[in-house]
Fold this protein.
Amino acid sequence: MIGLQTIAVAFAMFSALPVPQFAWNQKNMRYAMCAFPLIGVVIGGLWCLCGALPLPMPAKAAGFCLIPVWVTGGIHLDGYADTCDALSSYGDREKKLEILKDPHCGAFAVIRLCSYFAAYLALCACVDFTPWVGLCWTLALVLERALSGLAVASFPMAKNTGLAHTFATAADKTTARRVLMVLAALLSAALLALGGWALVLAAFLVFARYHVVSDRQFGGITGDLAGWFLQKAELWMLAALCACQWGGLL
């Protein structure tokens, strides 16, 4: 029962999918970050369904682009936009953290979001869907969420409030780190075996940059920075997926 509640908590927080609602407590939040990668499985499954449907390529590309937004409700895009505003301010650490808390969307956030979707849609239009490609992309979506959960369990927090702090405080960090590290290793090995080495490389390079940027510019991670990481990782992994196809690796 606690296991089902843990999954429900993860989906209630990080997706827009209807799930049973439970009161959050220490027991069902302890391993919620370990359940977070399951959302990648759902997105990947719907992505594959879209790819298998007899749709014109523009419609498929639109589906590939919008499915992650529909499933997550845009929660990670919100963090991406806020972080883009903060990074573009070139203010000190306190100024950047203040911008992250501001509910308004600044000019730089709008510019970066428009650029992001233009690039994402263009890359989706370049994908030649096959079951092999769908499997690789699903594994990549799960991998980025395993790395995101690992960051919450491992990286310092920028502040003692907010969503990331709430989940980090409630988590059994030692167990979560072990589970997510093993999961990330298994997913990486599977992608390498399938020829998706470029996706693994992209994910870990963005993960390394996430650590550097969060530490040097914010003093740790926040929920917004976690969203920024996921969106950046997804875009670069998608570019890597297209590169693998162009290179005949997938």
